[in-house]
Structure formats: structure tokens, C-alpha cells
Amino acid sequence: MTYLSIGLRALLTLAFVAAGFAKLSGVDMMVATFDAIGVGQWFRYLAGIIEVGGAILLWIPRRQALAAAVLGATMVGAVLAHMFILGPSAVPAIILGLICAAVLYLHRDQIQETLGRSA
To answer: Which residues of the chain carry a pLDDT beneath 50?
Structure first.
């Protein structure tokens, strides 16, 4: 299970660091996407910070479940944005969300600890 977790976290890290830096650096496609969503460019920066921060958090011991939950929540938002506003295809966001769910499952023992409850 350790190798599976490492592999999935590496995939998520590559995807979210790339997407996060694209948002933070103002890649034209990202600017246009957030214009289409209509929430303002501040939200693009927030999404980029969350994505890069979540990718970093995936590698901090005992924080993988938290990272997967945060990144998975961003993918729920991405799927909804694609379904109701942007169109084309939500498949990449769905796949990333499923990988986040797998990492969360693999590190489910951390959930009670993260919520501040003793097991």
C-alpha cells in the first residue's frame, strides 16, 4: 500500500502543482476560465494557492488525508463549474477527484487524528 500511496500522491502532486502554478502565473486560459465562471480573479489566486499548498501537504507526514480531502473538494468545485458553467468535459476533474478519494481511503487512519479525536 505504501508504493500505491506514493504513486498516487506523485500523480496528484504533478497535476496540482502544474495547475496551481498556471493559475498563479496568470496563464491566459486560466484567466479566461475564471472570467467565464464569474467569481473574479481573486478566486483564481485562491484556487492556485490551495492547489499548490495541497500538493505540498500530501508529503507532510500524517497530513495526507487532510491534503486529499482539500484537493478533492476543489475537484468537486471544478466538476460543478464544468457541468453548469464551462461546459466541455469534467472528466479530468472527476479522475483527479477519484485519485484524491483513493489517497484519502489509503490514509483513512489519519481522519480521527486530524479531527482532534483520539482513536
So the answer is: none
Closest-CA residue to 68 (of 80, 54, 56)? 54
CA distances from 112 to 7, 18, 21, 38 (A): 24, 31, 32, 37
- Pick the closest to residue 19 from 60, 74, 65 (CA basis): 74
pTM reported for the whole predicted model: 0.91
| Cell numbers placing 75 | 475537484
Amino acid letter for position 30: M
CB 75 within 8 A of CB 99: no
Question: What does the domain layout of the chain look like in residue ranges?
Answer: 2-114
Q: What is residue 22's three-state secondary structure?
A: helix
- Pick from 116, 11, 13: nearest CA to 60: 13
Residue 119 in grid coordinates: 482513536
Rg, C-alpha atoms of the chain: 15
Q: 27: Cβ–Cβ under 8 A, 6 or more apart, which residues?
A: none
